[in-house]
Structures are given as structure tokens and as C-alpha cells.
Amino acid sequence: MKYAYYPGCSLECNSAAYDHSVRAVADLLGIELREIDDWNCCGATEYFTQDELTACAVIARNLALVDPQLDQVVAPCAACYLNLRKVDHLMQENAELKDKVNRCLAAGNLHYDPGRVRVRHLLDLIHSDFGEAALRDKVVQPLTGLRVACYYGCQIVRPFGDCDNPEQPVKLDEMFRWLGAEVVDFPVKAHCCGGHMTQISEPQAFELIRRLLANAEDYKADVIVTMCPMCQLNLDAYQARVNGFFHTDYKIPIIFFTQLLGVAFGLDWKNLGFGKEIVPAEPVLKRKLTAVAAA
After folding, report:
1. For residue 16, with 0-12 CB atoms within 10 Å meaning exposed, 13-18 middle and 19 or more buried, which class applies?
2. What is the pLDDT of residues 116-145, one digit of tens each?
3. Nearest 5°: phi and psi at 191?
4. Rounded distance, CA 171 to CA 210, Å?
5. Can you spell out the DSSP letters for 120-164?
6. pTM surpassing 0.85?
7. What are phi and psi of 2, to 5 degrees?
8. Strand pairing category for 223-226 and 254-256
9. E-assigned strands of the chain?
10. Which 3 state secondary structure label does DSSP give 254?
């Protein structure tokens, strides 16, 4: 199976572990990811509030660059997925906007017909296109004994509700149950992490992050798995700051879902990017998985 691949900026730097694990898991599953040549930043989410036409044109350029032989593009980053999906939708719904965007693209000898490319998140692709039997067949290291909190965030499941249930998504939960993990109840699984709120109001940002960490600890989760670079960054990099602000002592590893898939599939941990996170994940994973194996 061949797909266009849009990694996005975060996966090239602070979330490199995500990119490494995505590619490793894709190789194992026989997914050929063809990185879009000369792709550009999606503008994150805030740019839409500044200049909608420019934002749409910048994003549509990536869709226009997708190999004509491919009709699906995979975006692991939640913001990138949402932006690509949103622009394709807006251009389909608004003929005037479509024409304006294509006039912008014409300056670079590009054109995009909305609807030509289907934008997908990697979770949906793996869950829907492979399914339980195929994934169970790849398991080398069952995740038995590991308590996992599945964190979807707010951008993958909303506003487009066809990827998963927008309020109580289940695909990530189901996937890790297939691989043997004990998926804990996590009522805040689709709540916002605050995004860039840490740069605007630390007290509000820290409270949003605290709620997520507290809920995971309440249900005795060993790790939180996420699908969004911003979510991973906020919960991991700001965990110590949250502890200092609220006088708590959270020490919950925050890893990408593809990293834990790779562990279950028996892939080399170094190739999955472990060690790049701030709250170490390896000691927790090895302790839990080894304890079960020895029992």
C-alpha cells in the first residue's frame, strides 16, 4: 500500500521520535510512505485567524504537491491532519475560495482540485485498513500488564467526526487491547491540552495539563500514549512545571502511539525514538513487561 506522507515540522525536530516510530511501524506493516517533495509548514492552527486565504493557500500547496499517482495522504500530526483536511473541505464547499486559492497556487505553477486527495490520520489507516487480526499477527512482545491511557486530544476527532467518535473515541483503545495492554478508563481522552496556551497564560495552561495527568494517575496508568506532537510536548515537557505549580508529583511517561506499537511488534527501541522524551519511558515499560514475562 502506497500513501503520500506529510510529516510536518514537529516531526522533523522536537517530535523526531514520532517520525522515527511512524516509519519503523509502516515498514513492518508494508505501508510505503512517500514523503511529499518540497512540502511546507501547515501554519499550525493560529494562522487561520490572521489571514484565511493565505493560510488556505499555504496548506493547499502541500495537497497540490501530492504525487498524481497517489490519492491519499497520511499526516501523523494532529494539527497538520486537521489543517489539510479542513482546507480540502473548505475548497469543496466554497467555490469562490477554491478559485482564489488556485490563483495563489498558480504563482508556483500549481493547482489543486478539492477532493482529489483523501487526508487521513495514521491511526485511522492502521486501525481500519489492517484491523485486529493483522495487528495481532505482528505481535512479538504482548503488552500484557501495561496500563495505558489513550489520549486522542481535540484536533483529530473534531470537527470531522468520521475518523472516530468526537466525544468518546475508541480506535486507539481497541488497538492496544488487541496488542494485550490493559487500557484504562480515561474520561478526558478527547479534552484539549491547551495547545500554545503555555505561552499566553501559564496558570490556565498548567490546569489543563494537570487535569489530564491527574486523570491518568487516578486510573493508575503506567503511560499516556498520544497522537499529537503538541499534546506530547505539553504533557511531557511541562510535567515538572505543573508539579511545581500545584505541588504534585506526577511522573507519567508520555509517548507516541507508534512507539508503543513498535514495542509490541518487537522493533528495536532505538529506532523507535525512545530516550528523546523527558519523563523516561523505557524503565517503566521494561519493568512492567518484564514482570509479566517472569510471572
Report:
1. middle
2. 999 999 999 999 999 999 999 999 999 999
3. -80, 160
4. 24
5. E-HHHHHHHHTHHHHHHTT-SS--TT-EEEEE--STTTSS-TTSS
6. yes
7. -120, 135
8. parallel
9. 2-5, 32-35, 72-74, 118-120, 147-151, 182-183, 223-226, 254-256
10. strand
Which amino acid, 72?
Q
Beta carbons of 281 and 289 less than 8 angstroms apart: no
Select from 204, 259, 203, 250 the least CA-distant residue to 229.
259
Q: Give 211 or 163, the one with higher predicted confidence.
A: 211
Grid cell, residue 221, equals 496508568
**Taken in order 124, 129, 134, 139, is the CA torsion positive or negative?**
negative
Question: How many helices (H) and strands (E) would you count in the chain?
Answer: 12, 8
Which residues contact residue 17 at a Cβ distance below 8 angstroms, ignoring those fewer than 6 apart?
255, 256, 259, 272, 273, 274, 276, 277
CB neighbourhood size of 240 (10 A): 13
Render the burial of 130-169: b for 16+ CB within 10 Å, e for the rest.
Answer: beeeebeebeebebebbbbbbbbbbbbbbebeebbebeeb
Grid cell listed for 226: 498520544
Q: How far apart are CA 89 and CA 133, in angstroms?
A: 33
Distance separating alpha carbons of residues 290 and 295, to the nearest angstrom: 9
- Answer whether 76's CB lies under 8 Å from 111's CB: no
DSSP state of 227: S
Greatest distance between any 2 Cα atoms in the chain: 65
Dihedral sign of CA atoms 48, 168, 7, 282 in order: positive
Provide the pLDDT for residue 295: 54
Stated length of the chain = 295
Q: Are 7 and 76 in contact (CB under 8 A)?
A: yes
